[in-house]
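Just scan this pair:

***
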Amino acid sequence: MTNDPEVLDLPEGLGAPRQISQSIYALLRRHIEKRTFPDGLVLGEAAIAKALDIGRGPARTALEQLAADWLVLRFGGRGLIVSYTGRPVAPVRKDLYEAGLELSQSDRDAFGLSGASDRIYPQVEATISSCVAFGRFAIDRLAMAEHHHISPTLAHVILTRLETVGLVRQDKLRWYADKLTPDQISEYYEIRQLMEPEALKRAYPLLDRNRVIAARDRLKAVMARGDVSPAELNQVERDIHIDIVHACPNVQMVRIIKDSQRSLITTMHTFERYGSTPKMVLAFEEHLAVLEAIVAGDPDEAADALRQHLIRAQASTVPRMIDLPPLDKDRYPPYLLPVESA
């Protein structure tokens, strides 16, 4: 067994200590060379270890290398300091993310954050999506980490992913989830009406007919039973709008469709939270028409049925979003803080 402090500090699942320290060095050097950090930012091993969810040993090695390359200066206090002039400067003590630290996908992979993010992200997305129709919320990153039993670093990674899909945004160092308006929902539905039917036709030659038949039979069973759980409703929506439409070989078309389907995700989770999912059973006949046309080998009819379904969905969904009642405090998590509209 070795007494090397870098090995003892290394979290399980990460690469070799030298590899981790080199990843930290490259990350910090990139930010310094781009002058992303404020002049005078203090870089300490504890702050770096906290920001990247790693041990102090690799952070210490990376700082020593930065100092050896004259990218940071030693100063009277603890740690090292960023100085773009190479001369002493007043120290600035900030959380590294508040100071501008950004992690690329390769950074997240290097520090073992991608896998954990993939596990937690869907839950956070569903939670925030279920609330934004009710108003605007500020997001407390530390409270999110505590609520989901994750590190503040991982909470930041998840918020960054949510920002890339437009569900949250960062403004003056704080995160917000803006209210989803009926007008925005209408615009998303209009995009979907134009693109999803065409995507279905392009996906048709690639579809597994047996899987489509299974989806049709599953839907018939739900309709015959007369009730539906939120999980079953989600599967019914996925069968067409995800599994079939996203099979389109045009990658850019699918990307735009996915962005516009955020309204679908949000309204579904909203209605689950509001407790009114059974009303959506009315759309099952329309879903069945799409699936039956695909099974019958008529993609044009399936596309037209899908278009009519989306037109009717827009007409029924938008008024319901307008008339939503206030959301009780116990219906949203403690890391979401309601913000009064200006």
Q: What stands out?
A: Strands lie at 42-43, 73-74, 80-81, 136-139, 169-171, 174-177, 336-339. The longest strand covers residues 136-139. The chain has three domains: 5-102, 113-179, 182-322. The radius of gyration is 25 Å.
